[in-house]
Amino acid sequence: MATVTKKIKLKTKGNTDIINITPQVAEAVSSSGVTSGIVAVFVIGSTAGITTIEYEPGLVRDLKDYFEKIAPVSGEYEHNLRWHDGNGYAHVRASSVGQSISVPLIDGEMPLGTWQQVILIDFDNKARAREIIVQIVGD
Length: 139
Ligand code: ZN
What we know:
Elements: E1 2-12, E2 17-20, H1 22-32, E3 37-43, E4 48-53, H2 57-70, H3 78-83, H4 88-97, E5 100-105, E6 117-122, E7 128-138
Antiparallel strand pairs: 1-7, 2-6, 3-5, 3-7, 4-6
The structure holds zinc ion.
């Protein structure tokens, strides 16, 4: 049994920037030497989320529209009144998505669907440098 921890560092544009991180996650997995177990992908921070999507422009736009409906940027947030950083919407969106996913690792492959990619969504209201932890546990 091994635990291998890798980091993915990337810069985002913020403002609900949706980034396909599947290649970086797959690279972390293949370089770990682990072929059977579980892959945990976690983003540090309370204004970003990790999930999966069919990464194509239409759906990326649909997802952004969805977030604007459930937690509008210009909505009223107690967080903004308290901290004046204007990103209350980003915290709410991030918490609704979650900060991590786990993917099974079987025979050296993550069994993602053909049209299923792992994405980072950076909701914050400014460009950010993000750190994603990929932890691979198994044999
Ligand atoms: Zn804030």
